[in-house]
Amino acid sequence: MTSVPVTTEKAPTGVVRRFLSRRASWVPVFAAVVLLVVIFAAAQAYFGNILTPRVISALLLDNAYLFILAVGMTFVILTGGIDLSVGAVMAFTGMFGASLMRDGMPSAAVVPIMLLLGAAFGLAIGVLVQYFDVQPFIASLAAMFAARGLAFMVSLDSIKVEDGAILWLQSTRLQAGVGSWYITPTGIIALLVVLVGALVLAFTRFGRTIYAIGGSEQSARLMGLPVVRTKLLAYVVSGVCAGLAGVVFTAYTGASYPLNGIGTELDTIAAVVIGGTLLTGGSGYVVGSMIGVFVYGTIKTVISFLGADQSWTRISIGALLLMFVVVQRVIVARSNRR
């Protein structure tokens, strides 16, 4: 009797395939991590001073508001929606808050008002989408125009912020570890928002319902899930994040201007998509969105080091966005075949 040799050469391939089939939603996140590492490695090889505590700490400092916006946008996109108003809402809440502080109102009262204004915009978009069957693109576009117009109604000129508590959020640099590592209160706020967003999506019924709605809203309704309430809350979360970003961006610039945040909604969407969240909803992670913001911030930093025009940032992000959308389509197609 002839024995047949047993080979295990294909075992690693089988393990990889099983992992990819069970964790397909993480593939775009890993791709974003690999992209970030490649950008850092190439920039370090070219400049020699990118991977320094000062530069990396500045990435979080300069993009803290974008981290916050990306968390809120992740919630909305996971439901299959979109929110184009976040940049304008950030500008309006910043203008309104700055005007109140200029008139003598303390920041302890102004900040909650800014958050409530952001929540109101988010709720208005959610109501239009859910109860009036308006497409999220149109509803959020209307809110964007409304918020931008209200920002101009507050003032046509820049409003300087002189409140010590708001300025403290940006001016204070807390040393982190040895060397030149540092973090600001705005950076801490951004990281806390990312942490809370990730925990909510991963471990709460609200988070699981968001994924279910994005996967199939009709199936979520048949399962008896609170679809209406969850979609409304998703837009409210995005609005609150926009209001909080208004606080952080006001602290970052030390002033508010009605033209602040133009194009920020597109940067936010690009960061979220690059981080692996499907535009069709149902798949994505807040951690991935954070990686996407780091990719965006790193590209912007590299272009600044090159001394090139910042328009190249838009070109680079546009190319990456197209690439990641193609990757997403491939993943969705393979999932459908399974």
UniProtKB/TrEMBL annotation:
The keyword Metal-binding does not apply. Signal peptide: none annotated. It holds the Pfam family BPD_transp_2. The keyword Transmembrane helix applies. The chain crosses the membrane at residues 26-47, 67-96, 108-131, 180-203, 232-257, 269-299, 311-332. It is a multi-pass membrane protein. CDD domains: TM_PBP1_transp_AraH_like. Its main location: membrane. Keywords: Cell membrane, Membrane, Transmembrane, Transmembrane helix. InterPro entries: ABC_transp_permease. It is found in: Cell membrane. This is Sugar ABC transporter permease YjfF. It comes from Protaetiibacter mangrovi.
